[in-house]
Design goal:
The chain is of the alpha+beta class and about 325 residues long. The chain has eight helices and 17 strands. The radius of gyration is 20 Å and the shape is globular. The structure holds cobalt (II) ion (CO) and zinc ion (ZN).
Length: about 325
């Protein structure tokens, strides 16, 4: 069940570069259901499910396991931790958040108001772990340890779910379900649960080079344009998954983009067209490897991306799974 898979994946701890808990969870879910599984030097989990056709194409489908976090840069004498962002951490989104380290130490992320009256910056973030002084703090965490927004999944209305790490665990859940439920599909699925996307598509870059697929697809969240004050991109929650036309990292290969649109039509699933004025996905890493690979992105509309309350609509998830099942058979 997509919903249960998602719930399990959302609770795994995994900032960029430390995705091993997420990978272990996925390995367990897929064990015995795929033809091969391996982990590469960057921690990418690469899973193959062979196609039934004699001329099966190898389609790399990527979903990133990492999410944004904070890394300890200094421990102050009063016991507070200074931190630096790992990926796109927003200042506004960081005010007074519950965070957790891998060893279970919990704390409150705060933004210090700069004295000059200037707007706060990353250097003004700190974490309060309840330590009385530096010595006590050093007994709890070390320089270089990472923290993430603490897991906190909740239902919003009938169809929506909010949680930290929805970017991109919702796509990991989709890819797990695709690998579990596609049977005798025409093409070979090379599922890549990628690492370090949030710091620059690093895992997918080496995975795509190594795999050298015939075709590539990234699964990721995209932004929204349907809340007060936010009108771009023209993407709404609950109106179906979005087929990316372009973002700042790539222009989707027309053949892949159109194949996604055709798969959606054949599966009778409504989709949206996405033009995102910022951001990027693993799709770019696949498209720009070697001498170039045809690639595209299927997106899950997500509100409040990179906050502790990233919200998606499960109807878009269900639709995306149907489009993917059709896509790997049709193209
Ligand atoms: Co992201
Ligand atoms: Zn993402």
């Amino acid at each position: 069940m997509l919903r249960n898979t998602l719930k399990t994946l959302l609770s795994a701890w995994g900032p960029s570069g430390s995705e091993h808990q997420v990978a272990a969870t996925i390995r367990e879910m897929l064990n015995g259901h795929v033809d091969s599984m391996r982990t590469d030097a960057l921690g990418n989990l690469i899973v193959e499910k062979y196609g039934s056709d004699d001329n099966a194409r190898r389609i790399m489908i990527s979903a990133h396991m990492d999410h944004i976090g904070l890394v300890v840069t200094a421990i102050e004498k009063e016991g507070y931790l200074r931190v630096m962002n790992v990926g796109g951490v927003g200042i506004k989104e960081s005010q007074t958040r519950h965070v957790v380290f891998e060893n279970g130490v919990e704390g409150v992320l705060r933004v210090e108001e700069p004295e000059s009256g200037a707007s706060p910056a990353i250097k003004d973030l700190f974490i309060d772990i309840g330590a009385a002084d530096a010595e006590e703090a050093r007994g709890m965490v070390q320089l270089g340890d990472m923290a993430v927004y603490a897991p906190d999944m909740f239902q919003v209305g009938k169809h929506r779910i909010a949680s930290p790490a929805m970017d991109d665990r919702c796509a990991c859940a989709l890819l797990v379900e695709l690998l579990l439920y596609s049977e005798n599909q025409k093409n070979t699925i090379v599922g890549v649960f990628s690492t370090q996307e949030e710091v620059g598509l690093r895992g997918a870059t080496v995975a795509a080079f190594g795999i050298n697929p015939d075709l590539g697809l990234a699964l990721d969240v995209t932004a929204w344009g349907d809340t007060p004050g936010t009108k771009l991109p023209d993407v709404k929650l609950g109106k179906g998954p979005a087929v990316k036309i372009m973002d700042r990292s790539m222009i989707a290969t027309p053949m892949v983009r159109d194949a996604l649109l055709e798969a959606a039509a054949a599966a009778d699933i409504p989709v949206q067209r996405e033009v995102l004025p910022f951001g990027g996905t693993d799709g770019a890493a696949i498209q720009h490897t070697r001498a170039g690979i045809p690639a595209g992105t299927l997106s899950i509309p997500c509100r409040y991306v990179h906050s502790a309350c990233e919200m998606i609509d499960m109807r878009d998830m269900d639709g995306a799974l149907q489009v993917l099942l059709q896509f790997v058979n049709q193209i």
